[in-house]
Design a protein that fits this description.
two-stranded parallel ribbon; elongated; glycosyltransferase; about 375 residues; about 50% helix; Spore Coat Polysaccharide Biosynthesis Protein SpsA, Chain A; alpha/beta
Length: about 375
């Protein structure tokens, strides 16, 4: 190998390490400051309290399902209704839903049963009846595994500024049980939630389906809820609908938690692969960047520089400590999970990312709640 080639590789590796580290540290700083400032600025009481309908699609007895469903009745807001959507009348979650409803008569609540096959997305099909039955013009679609704090609606409405068409929240992993639960949190928190919040902070917010606050007219005048069948993922379709309308998607300053519980490696891999394949077809530019935004390749670039004598060996260790130390400090500053096991999970996550990325580009199918789906097919046509 000639000296010119070696010199070129040195500059390339050095530039890659510096640029990726710079983006990594800047994104962490922005998201941390944004979250810390939000803690002091979210109003305890809003000047106006529009009535809100909360739609919760439920299916089966998931981890912490009773805790998450009960949390909806602790929301501190003067006027809202809760609509539980169930696809099948023999779903084992129905008795639990009815019991929780009966124990909380202070909140207007209904349970709707039935399945409207507008797409191959089972959650979207389950939500159709709730959208049409909602009494109010402000509507939240909230997954059943989202834990709603008392200020849930206040924090979402606080992000509704002029020009907004949709407000969302990514999931924040909490209460993991075991090593694979920790890995799930490592994917969700300082990686996925961080990048989504950073993208929103620089003016490029995009929808995340865990919690979505709609103004009914923003969707109804563009085809109503059936318009979300245009993509396999309803959040990707939501982003496109809102952007075509000339409006913006905003994310809450601090995400809402999702209890993770016990996970198997297969479950973590399958879920992350499903999301990666969906991102590949819905937001391809962002998906391409996912290959290099983890810590593995920047650290390998530093290892290469140390191996040929361009940098001292201790700088590799310092680089790795700074990389993951920044994530840990962000988690501490925002009250997210941190500690020895969560830190080790960050490293395992980054080792998995390249394999996950290549698996995402090598196929298009995945299974979701027993439904076979394919990201290459139009969801509405596949349902017919």
């Amino acid at each position: 190998m000639t000296d010119d080639i070696i010199t070129g590789l040195v500059w390339l590796a050095a530039a890659f390490a510096v640029i990726t580290a710079g983006v990594h540290f800047i994104s962490i700083l922005v998201v941390t400051l944004r979250g810390r400032i939000a803690v002091t600025r979210i109003p305890a009481k809003l000047p106006a309290h529009p009535p809100v309908s909360i739609l919760r699609p439920v299916c089966g007895l998931e981890n912490s399902i009773e805790e998450t469903l009960r949390s909806g009745f602790t929301v501190d807001y003067p006027d809202f209704e809760m609509i539980f959507c169930v696809a099948k009348d023999d779903d084992p979650v129905i008795p639990l839903v009815r019991r929780v409803m009966a124990e909380n008569p202070q909140v207007p609540t209904r349970i709707l049963i039935g399945d409207d096959r507008i797409s191959i997305n089972p959650k979207l099909n389950n939500l159709v009846k709730g959208w049409k039955a909602a009494r109010h013009d402000w509507i939240v679609m909230a997954d059943s595994n989202v834990l709603m704090p008392p200020d849930y609606l206040a924090r979402m409405l606080d992000r509704w500024v002029p020009g907004t068409g949709l407000v969302c929240s990514p999931p924040l992993g909490s209460a993991p049980d075991g090593a694979f639960g920790e890995i799930e949190c490592a994917f969700l928190n300082t990686f996925q939630a961080r990048w989504q919040l950073f993208s929103d902070a620089i003016g490029n917010g995009f929808a995340q389906g865990k919690s979505m606050l709609w103004r009914r007219e923003n969707l109804d005048r563009h085809g109503s809820i059936e318009a979300l069948a245009a993509d396999p993922a309803e959040d990707a379709a939501s982003t496109k609908v809102i952007r075509r309308a000339g409006l913006d998607v905003h994310l809450v300053h601090l995400p809402f938690p999702q209890p993770i519980g016990r996970r198997s490696l297969k479950a973590v891999w399958s879920r992350q692969l499903r999301w990666a394949r969906l991102r590949r077809v819905t937001f391809p530019l962002f998906f391409c960047a996912e290959l290099v935004v983890g810590g593995l390749f920047p650290i390998l670039a530093m290892v290469f520089l140390a191996a040929i004598g361009a940098v001292a060996g201790w700088m590799v260790a310092a680089f790795a400590v700074a990389w993951y130390g920044a994530e840990v400090l962000m988690a501490i500053g925002l009250g997210w999970r941190f500690g020895v096991r969560p830190t080790l999970a960050l490293i395992v996550r980054d080792l998995m990312l390249p394999a996950l990325w290549f698996a995402a580009v090598s196929g298009s199918g995945f299974e979701w709640r027993g439904n076979q789906m394919n990201v290459k097919k139009d969801s509405l046509l596949a349902a017919e």
